[in-house]
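Input chain follows. Return C-alpha cells only.
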Amino acid sequence: MSSSGALLEPHQIVDRELSWLDFNTRVLELAEDESLPLLERVRFLSIFSSNLDDFFMIRAASVKLKVESGATYTNAAGFPPSELLDEIFTRANSLVERQSRCLHELIIPRLSLENIHIVHWDELTEVEREHLNQIFHEQIFPVLTPLAVDPSHPFPYISGLSLSLAVIVKHPDTAEEFFARVKVPNVISRFISTHAVHKTRFIPLEDIIAAHLDELFPGMLIEDYYSFRLTRNEDLDIEEEDIENILETMEQELLRRKFGPPVRLEVDVDIKNELLERLISELEITHRDVVKYRGPLDLTGLNVIADLDRPDLRYPPHRSQMPPGLQSSEDLEPDEFFNLIRNSEVLLHHPYESFTSSVVRFIETAAIDPKVLAIKQTLYRTSGDSPIMEALIEAAQAGKQVLAVVEIRARFDELANVRWARKLEEAGVHVVYGLMGLKTHAKLSLVVRQEADGLRRYCHVGTGNYNPRTARLYEDLGILSSDPVLCNDLSRLFNQLSGFVSDIEFKRLIVAPKSLRSSLLEKIEREIKNAEANLPARIRFKLNSLLDEHFVAALYRASQAGVRVEIFVRGICAIKPGMPLLSKNVTVRSFLGRFLEHSRIYHFHNAGEDEYWIGSADLMNRNLDRRIETLIRVDQPEHKNSISGLLDLYGNDQVKHWEMDNDGAWRRKTHSENGEPFIDIQERLIEVVRGRSK
C-alpha cells in the first residue's frame, strides 16, 4: 500500500491520540443529550473530566516527552510529535470550553428547575453562610496549609491533579505584594451542601476557602485569587530486566510518579496575565500547555451531585438477573453448584446477569468446599473490599493450594494491587507476578476438585476484571466450564505463569503474545480466501480499541476481497470505513451508555462454520505483543447463537449508535429519517434478560 515500506499511508489510518479525543467527545455528547436523565448527564460530565485527566497524565505526557527530547519523526498517521501535541491541545481546549458551556448553559439551568443548585458565596443566605462558616472552621481550616512565596519561601511543589488557589496578598503598611498558594484539600468533598438538612444547594469547596482567605493570611490584604490545577506525567517507567524485586521496585516507582514533569495547566479563563506568566515560569511549562475555561475547574467531583437520591432523575434501577443454568444456585451446596457447571457450560453476560451470583459465587464456593484442593486466579484490577480476595485468603488459610497471579502494573491500580499482594502473601497465598516483561491481562480462574470419579477441574474465562464493583457498570462476557480440554489449557497456562515453561500448544485458547496475533490474522486471511472463492465471508469484531496497523491493513485487504467487515468499538479506532477501493465493505460503529461496553468478541463466518472467540484482548500492539491475553473459542451451539444475536443487535440500524465516516469523523444516529427514536441497545438487553427471568 505504501511505497515507503510502511504498512499504510498516513491518510489511511486515524491517529491514536486524536481517536481517543474523539471517543471522549462521544462521552461529552451524552452529557449534552437532553433525552437522558439529568443526573446521568452530570455523571457523564464527571466521566469526561476524569477521562481527560488520564489522557493527559499518560498519552499527552508521552507525546510531550518526545517533543522535549527533540524527536521529529512522523507517526503512522503522518504527525511529527510537535504538530501532534499542538493538535492535542487545540482539540482539548475546544472540548473543555464545550464542557464548560454544557455545564453552565445546559446542566445548571436544568438542575435549578429541579431545585438543585450550584451556587457561589455571594448567592448564599445568612443561614447558609453560618452553616458553611462552621464547616470551614471545623473541617476545612485544620487541613489547610497556606504557602507563601518570598525570598525565604521558594515556590512550593504542586502535585498532580491538585486544585489550588493562587492568592495575591498585600502588606497593609508597605503595600508590597506577595504570592501565596493554598491547596484545595482532596480529602474533602469537591462540592459542599450549603445546608445541614436540605441538601439541594452546593458550593465548590474552593469558594468556601476563598471566602475565608483573610483567616489564612491575618493582617494582610487579599488583593486577588484564582483557581489553577496542574497535571503531571504519571506514567511508570520500569525496566524489568534490570530489577531483582518487582514489588519493591513498583513501590519506589509509585513514590517517584508523584514528581513527574508538568504536562497541563488549567486556569480560570479570567486569570490576570501577570499571574499566569508567573505560574508558567515557576512551573516550567509553555503557553501551549495552558488550558483556560470558565470554572469551576476539576469537574470530576460532580459525582456528589450525580449521586443524589433523586430516582426520577436517574436511569431506572437495574437488578442483575441470575444467569441461565445457575437459576437455582443461591442456596445450593458445593456439590450441587459444581454439578450445574459440570452438566453444562454457562455463558455469562454482565451486568445484565449477576457477577456476584456467578463468578464471585464460583470462587467463594471453591474456598469453603472441602473437596477443593487448589484455586488459581489471575488478578488485574479488583475492588478494595473484594470478596474474591477474601475468598482466596480464606482458602489458603484452610490449607488449600492457592495461586494468585497479581498484575501490580495495572495502570492507576498499582498501589491497590501492591497492598493486596502483600496481604495475600501474609495469608499463605502463592503470589507471582507473571512473566518478565509482560503484563498479565487475561481473566482466568481455575479450581481443582476431588470428586468420586477422580480429580476434576472447573474454570472461568472472561472479558472483564474480577472486580464486583465495576462488574455492575461494565458490560462483559464470561464462561463457566468443566470442559477437560479448556481446563487443561488453563492448567498449562498457569504453570507457565508461575514456573518455567517455554512452549505450550493450546486447543481451545489463543494466547498472546505467542499466537494471538498470528492466529487472528490467519482467520482474516481465511475469510479473504473464502470471498475470493465466492464463498460467504464475514468478519465482526466487538472490542474496546482497534489500533494495530497489521490488523488495519488485513481488514482493508478483506474489504477489497469482498468480505463484509463490521467493527463495533468503544474507544480508539484507527481504521477508516467506506473509502473507495480500500474499505467500502467496512463499517465502524461505537456504543456508549449507562454501562461501559467492555467485552471483546471476534466472529469469523468461516464459510458457514462460524467461529466465535471472546476474551481479554483488544487489537493494540500492547495486547498482542506485550501482555498475557487469552481468547476462548465458544463451542456450545446455544452460546454461539446468543453471541450471534448480540452482534446482530449491535449491527441493527434501528439502535442508537455513532458511525464513523470515511474521513474518520463520527456522526451520532439517534432517530430514523422520519423522526422515530432508535432503540437504546443496553435498555433493550435489560428488558430481554428481565423478561427471560419471569
